[in-house]
Amino acid sequence: MKSLLIIISQSPLAGQNLLESLSAAMVMATYGVQIKIMLTGDAIALLRVPIQTPSNTHMRPFKSAFSLVESFEFYDLVPIWIDAKGFEDHKKLIEMTTIEHEVIDLNPQTLASFDGVLRW
Fold first, then answer.
1. Which residues contact 87 (CB under 8 A, 6 or more apart)?
2. CATH no. for residue 23?
């Protein structure tokens, strides 16, 4: 079975491009590719629950990026890896999240353990 590391660095505000990246990861996992997701940089904010206010509770045509990340458990994509370099900048957010995760130091040995690496 092929193994693939997907490194996501896009912020939750990246829009449709981010949603398509997350959806592609779930599709690959569905078809038997062994996927590991790593969030780095601005993408670590994907672990934050979106704030609901009376002005933004209207129906949206697409799922939020957080909802997609939250559903990763159904695709065996958890724990999500968090790049150790961004841990200090997002420490409070990481500690508050309910999504299963691990803080990992991304090094050449880790990268070499995968058949391929995608950066989105």
1. 94, 103
2. 3.40.1260.10
Determine the structural domain holding residue 84 and report its residue range: 3-49+62-119
Tell me whether residue 37 is in a domain.
yes
Q: Enumerate the H helices of the chain as residue ranges.
A: 16-30, 65-70, 91-96, 108-112
- In the chain, the number of structural domains is 1
Contact 11, 42 (CB under 8 A): yes
What's the pTM value of the predicted model, to 2 decimals?
0.82
Q: What's the one-letter identity of residue 55? A: S
Q: Is residue 86 part of a domain?
A: yes
32 assigned to some structural domain: yes
Residue position matching structure tokens 């799922």: 63
Taking the C-alpha atoms of residue 87 and residue 72, their distance in angstroms, rounded to an integer, is 21
pLDDT tens, N- to C-terminus, the chain (120 residues): 789 999 999 887 777 888 999 999 999 999 988 999 999 988 888 887 665 555 555 545 446 788 888 889 999 999 999 988 877 777 777 777 888 889 999 899 999 999 999 998
